[in-house]
Each structure stands twice: as structure tokens, then as C-alpha cells.
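ok, trying the design again with the full structure, not the truncated one.
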């Protein structure tokens, strides 16, 4: 089990997730189009682009 946090490009934490699997889905429906960063507790960062 791991924790990940979704950030906007200003560095504001938007939402935290507990990850229990190697794959998971994030619902970005309530967020505007833009670039988001998903950072895991071990320091890995994934860039997400919502169009």
C-alpha cells in the first residue's frame, strides 16, 4: 500500500490517494484542463495532462 498526492502546477495539493494495486484510476472530472503532477510517497512523479 502506498500514498500518492495530486498537485496542480502551482504546487497546491488537490487530493490524496491510497494505492492498493499496481494500476489505478484517478477521476479528474471536477478539475479544469491543465497539467497535474502525481507524486508518490517514494518520490516518484507522474505528469498528467487533462485536455
Amino acid at each position: 500500500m502506498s500514498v500518492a498526492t495530486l498537485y496542480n502546477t502551482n504546487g497546491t495539493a488537490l487530493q490524496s490517494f491510497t494505492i492498493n494495486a499496481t494500476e489505478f484510476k484517478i477521476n479528474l472530472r471536477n478539475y479544469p484542463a491543465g497539467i497535474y503532477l502525481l507524486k508518490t510517497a517514494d518520490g516518484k512523479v507522474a505528469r498528467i495532462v487533462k485536455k
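Keeping the full-length input from now on. The chain has no helices and four strands.
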